[in-house]
Design a protein that fits this description.
Length: 239
């Protein structure tokens, strides 16, 4: 696999590549954001990746999710992502957990085995629990805020949650994290004002929740930014 990493090593250096090879990263959520983050991490040389998701590929995922193809519909996202990673970089150790992260499943995870955690979960309660547990275990975590109802991928920024603006999800997270006593959190968020769905009166719904609109070229950018921040965080000691 020397040729596989040659161009990356040309840019980052041998010491950085060794750090990445010996690093373990967990990606929670394999949707339009997490799937791209996971693949970028595999291609850059992360040695061990743990994939966590409780969903299967759905036809509605075809417009934005890396693993959503007509022949993967109905398959577990963790399995499709794992297979894809192994086809790209067979040297990566891939662990999969087909589960929803909440209080009933948190005991399945040993955060001390991770060097970095990527939060690409949609559900606020699960995001908060994941962040709380990562902070308690002193494991670096980066969290993605909302990418739905956005159309401009150039508006993404990386900052502390308490310095964010415009993003409705970030606003909710700021309030909850403050109440939890968590003083900081690195996030990827968009400063683009949310776009009102074209058919707002007939908006897609899931239970009582309106399903946000999405486009193919926005969530992936957030996923790539997440991956870049993880890599930078892991190898910064080499610069």
């Amino acid at each position: 696999m020397e040729d596989f990493f040659s161009r990356t090593e040309n840019l980052l250096g041998k010491q950085a590549m060794l750090i990445l090879k010996n690093s373990s990263v967990a990606v929670f959520g394999l949707g339009g954001v997490g799937s791209y983050a996971a693949e970028a991490l595999a291609r850059v040389g992360i040695g061990e990746i743990t994939l966590i998701d409780s969903d299967v590929v759905d036809r509605t995922n075809l417009n934005r999710q890396l693993i959503a193809l007509t022949d993967t519909i109905g398959e577990k996202k963790v399995d499709v992502m794992s297979e894809r990673i192994k086809k790209i970089n067979p040297t990566v150790k891939v662990n999969t957990l087909f589960c929803f992260y909440d209080k009933s499943t948190q005991a399945l995870f040993d955060f001390s085995s991770y060097h970095y955690i990527v939060d690409a979960i949609d559900t606020v309660t699960s995001k908060l629990l994941l962040i709380k547990n990562a902070k308690a275990a002193n494991v670096p975590i980066i969290s993605c805020m909302g990418t739905g109802n956005k159309i401009d991928p150039t508006k993404f920024e990386v900052d502390d949650i308490y310095s964010t603006s415009m993003c409705p999800l970030a606003k909710v997270m700021r309030k909850e994290l403050k109440q939890m006593g968590i003083p900081s959190l690195l996030v990827v968020y968009s400063k683009e004002p949310p776009i009102m769905p074209q058919n707002s009166q007939n908006a897609l719904c899931e239970g009582k929740r309106h399903i946000p609109g999405s486009v193919s070229f926005v969530p992936p950018v957030a996923g790539f930014i997440l991956a870049s921040e993880v890599v930078e965080g892991l190898i910064k000691v080499t610069y």
